[in-house]
Amino acid sequence: MKHIAKVMLMLDLGIGGVYAQERPVKMTFSGTEAPSAINLQIPDTQTGEFNFAGNGTLGSFTFRNVEAGGGSPQQSDACPTTQLYVPTVAGAGVFRFHDGSLLKVKLTEGYDCIDFVAMEAHCTRTFKITGGTGRFNEGSGGMLTLTETVKPVLMDALNNPVFFAATGKFTGTVSGLTRDEEERQDERD
Prior knowledge:
- By secondary structure, this protein is mainly beta.
- β5 and β6 form a beta hairpin.
């Protein structure tokens, strides 16, 4: 009986290593941002959209995000005193990786620090991973933080920026890769 219990414990420990592991992630990107035709219908907000491409720990990817940013700029300790703070109140995005796997995220918090003198914004977003497909099929854990610099590319007739170039990075952790997938990814890195 003790022998069977030892074998079961060994199998359990061995199989446990095949299931989801938390993995640190660092990915860089570039892309564009603009107002979105999608309306999230949140009062006193404007809907924006990101379209990024990049590479990093999990391989090459694209990222599309739709979000609602809060109305008027204001002061906040999150930004230097010379910059205005604009909160982001809702949003979600999808990463599509080189192998076709999808990783879905939901915005938990975010803001922009707008520098009108330098004509750029420094933006931060925190995303919770909510699921995925392919190698992220069992993934529903982890957090990713986006930090980026955004610069206007196109102004409207009233000289308001409406289309932006963006560069930045994602850092954090992703759960949902099996140990076997992690080993294959390490071989590709």
